[in-house]
Specification:
CATH topology of one domain: Rossmann fold
Strand content: 5-15%
CATH class of one domain: Alpha Beta
Order of helices and strands: EEEHEEEEHHEHHHHHHHHHEEEHEHEE
Number of strands: 14
Strand order of the largest sheet: 2-1-4-5-6-7
Shape: flat
Distance between the termini: 22 Å
Largest sheet: 6 strands, antiparallel
CATH architecture of one domain: 3-Layer(aba) Sandwich
Number of helices: 14
Helix content: 55-70%
Radius of gyration: 69 Å
CATH superfamily of one domain: P-loop containing nucleotide triphosphate hydrolases
Oligomer: single chain
Length: 702
């Protein structure tokens, strides 16, 4: 039985634990609260990836949004043992390390496939029986009565048809292979005699070719001797020809070098004569004094004097002193006027403030005439002040200009007394002397360089004379060797002509010999290919004859298998139907709500199933029963199938079995689920209505 399930990041459940007990376990909650998710979690725990593929889903469908890893932990009690199944998974699939099955605390399987296989072997539950008998999903309660092939699928009777189709395909393939192999045997039986005849013809041609080779062997031996002698002489002739060409080129190059050396000797002798004339000219060159320093000093002095501005030449240093004195006088006068003007302004302020007062300057009474006179005087002083201010600014500007001019004057003062015309005349004289000295020195340097080459020229001249002598000796040696080579070439040409004629005549026989050998090799290759092909044909013929025998035997077996399958299918259906009826009638009588239903029987007519209910009035087909009675039959049949196939139903799960039913039929389903616990130890049922709450042993509210 199912004891507990723990969910972590499974669909809508971040972390949840649900405990189950014997009897009715009612999962109650509104639509979308996660009731079906609990049953899906049981399915995932039991069958993992196999369940995901069977329902056409993905692992990511079972993962809570935003989570990267989810986990289901299912606790079972099976035959007195505590079983724990853990499945940890992500978006791409289950985790091997986090997926395992433990019995009484000992891990017996790890990994998705191994855990699923352990569920089948240890718990005896396969996915097909679980999906069709133990877990009745929403809207599928009566499907077992509505689809005729449903029961055959659960009982795997349809596997007989699948096997028959496989055997039928195998039979067709065997027949096609028998036809192909038989045709190949006929083809090979025709091919073998043809190959034998061809091999005999090749052996005859090979014997004739080998006789011809024997006849040409003496000529071939003679050819090898003549060929060796001919190529040796020809190689020697070619070598001498190349040597002659090399000697001729060497003679030409040596003569050319000797000519070049002769020209170089003549050139050096001319250069030696030129050096002697340069020595004589060098001794006649005049000696001039050192005019260079004086020339550059005068030239710089002329440049300086020419740069003196005209205003500097006409400048008088006394003018700056006079302007400064004039500025001081104007400044003193400006101060006096400003002082007098200040007193007059004070008098005028006093006159305006007092009546018949006295002048603070002269002490006289301040009459209107006196005030008027002071006002006129103040006006005149103001104009004088402005004139003096402008004059001071003007004099300041003149002083700055004169100071700049005075500074320039003092810089050039020592050059003002120099006579520029006389200085330029002296510069012209010095420049003539300087240019003359440069020319003489340039000539002296050139002639000195020429004279300095005397030793090198004399040494080079001696070397060239020795080189000329060596080249003349080499020319003599080359001429001697060239005469010897030409004599040997004439002798070799005659011998080579005679042996070449003999070589050409024997070469014809040699080519016939080679052609015969190649022909023999080709005949041997063809004969080997044909003999090899003949062996392969005979082997393949023997193999295909044996294959024909095997195929004939296999065809007989395949036809017999189809006959047996046709006989086994109804027999298997009969045996399974009898076993199911024994369980079905017992379960139905425990769950029935009407005493008139005396018994029930699953029958098969023309390959289609029907359930007959026995009443005092006779048999009633299940399609004529009410919806509630059909639900009773559907549950009874599923439990009977579970007992027949699994030995019992350890638990059953119903997802929304009362959906779309009226109140009376919902009540009957509730009664049926309650009575079912007398046969099935643990029943799990979901509903968004509360009708199961009264009969539930365990209530899980979401």
């Amino acid at each position: 039985m199912i004891r507990k399930i723990e969910l972590y990041n499974f669909k809508a459940h971040a972390k949840a634990v649900f405990k189950f007990g014997e009897g009715v376990n009612f999962i109650y909650g509104p639509n979308g609260s996660g009731k079906t998710s609990i049953m899906e979690a049981v399915s995932i725990a039991l069958f993992g990836s196999q369940w995901v593929r069977r329902v056409g889903g993905r692992w990511s469908d079972y993962l809570k949004r935003g989570a990267s890893v989810g986990e289901v932990r299912l606790f079972l009690n099976h035959m007195g043992q505590e079983v724990l199944i853990v499945r940890r998974f992500g978006e791409e699939g289950s985790s091997t390390s986090g997926t395992y099955l433990a019995i009484d605390g000992a891990v017996v399987a790890r990994g998705d496939i191994d855990v699923t296989n352990a569920v089948v072997t240890k718990l005896g539950i396969r996915i097909d029986e679980y999906r069709h008998l133990l877990y009745i999903r929403q809207g599928e309660l009566r499907r077992i009565l509505q689809e005729p092939e449903y029961i055959d699928h659960i009982l795997r009777i349809d596997e007989f048809d699948k096997v028959d189709e496989v055997v039928k395909d195998v039979l067709k393939e065997l027949e096609r292979r028998r036809e192909r192999v038989g045709g190949r045997v006929e083809e090979l039986e025709k091919r073998a005699p043809q190959l034998k005849a061809k091999a005999d013809a090749l052996r005859q041609r090979l014997a004739e070719a080998e006789r011809k080779i024997k006849e040409l062997e003496d000529a071939e031996i003679k050819f090898r001797e003549v060929e060796k002698r001919f190529f040796e002489l020809r190689e020697r002739y070619i070598s001498l020809t190349k040597e002659k060409e090399s000697l001729e080129r060497g003679l030409e190059e040596t003569a050319s070098m000797a000519l070049e050396v002769e020209k170089d000797i003549e050139r050096l002798e001319e250069e030696l004569e030129f050096i002697r004339r340069a020595e004589e000219e060098l001794s006649t060159l005049p000696e001039l004094g050192d005019v260079e320093r004086e020339y550059y000093e005068v030239k710089q002095l002329v440049a300086t004097v020419e740069k003196i501005p005209p205003e500097v030449r006409s400048y008088d240093p006394k003018l700056l002193e006079e302007t400064r004195r004039k500025y001081e006088e104007v400044s003193r006068r400006y101060v006096e006027v400003r002082s007098r003007l200040g007193l007059l302004r004070d008098v005028l302020r006093v006159a305006k403030a007092a009546e018949r007062g006295r002048c603070p300057v002269c002490g006289a009474p301040l009459t209107e005439e006196t005030v008027k006179r002071h006002e006129l005087e103040a006006l005149g002083l103001e104009k004088e002040e402005q004139r003096l201010s402008r004059l001071m600014e003007q004099l300041q500007t003149e002083i700055k200009q004169l100071e700049t001019l005075d500074k320039t004057y003092r810089a050039y003062a020592q050059y003002l007394s120099i006579d520029l015309q006389a200085l330029k005349k002296r510069l012209a004289e010095l420049e003539t002397l300087y240019q003359r000295k440069r020319e003489v020195e340039k000539k002296r340097a050139y002639l000195s360089g020429v004279v300095a080459r005397r030793g090198e020229v004399e040494r080079r001249l001696e070397e060239l004379k020795a080189r000329k002598a060596a080249l003349e000796k080499r020319i003599g040696e080359i001429n001697g060797r060239l005469n010897a080579v030409e004599t040997e070439l004439k002798t070799l040409a005659t011998v080579l002509t005679n042996i070449e004629a003999e070589y050409t005549a024997l070469k014809v026989k040699h080519e016939e010999f080679l052609a015969a050998k190649m022909f023999v090799s080709e005949l041997k290759r063809q004969l080997e290919d044909i003999e090899r092909e003949l062996i392969e044909v005979e082997k393949e013929l023997e193999k295909n004859r044996y294959e024909v025998q095997k195929l004939d035997k296999a065809l007989g077996i395949a036809r017999n298998i189809r006959v047996v399958i046709g006989e086994l299918k109804p027999l298997a259906r009969q045996i399974l139907t009898k076993a199911i009826n024994e369980e079905l009638n017992s379960i139905f009588l425990k769950l029935r709500h009407k005493e008139v239903f005396r018994s029930v029987q699953l029958v098969e007519i023309d390959g289609k199933y029907s359930i007959r209910v026995n009443t005092p009035a006779g048999y009633i087909d299940h399609r004529l029963l009410s919806l509630g009675e059909q639900n009773l039959l559907a549950i009874s049949l599923r439990v009977a199938l579970a007992r027949a196939l699994l030995g019992g139903a350890p638990f059953m799960m119903f997802d929304e079995p009362t959906e779309h039913l009226d109140e009376e039929h919902r009540r009957k389903i509730v009664e049926l689920i309650r009575d079912l616990t007398s046969i099935v130890p643990t029943v799990v049922v979901t509903s968004h209505l509360g009708e199961f709450e009264e009969v539930a042993d365990v209530v899980i509210q979401l």
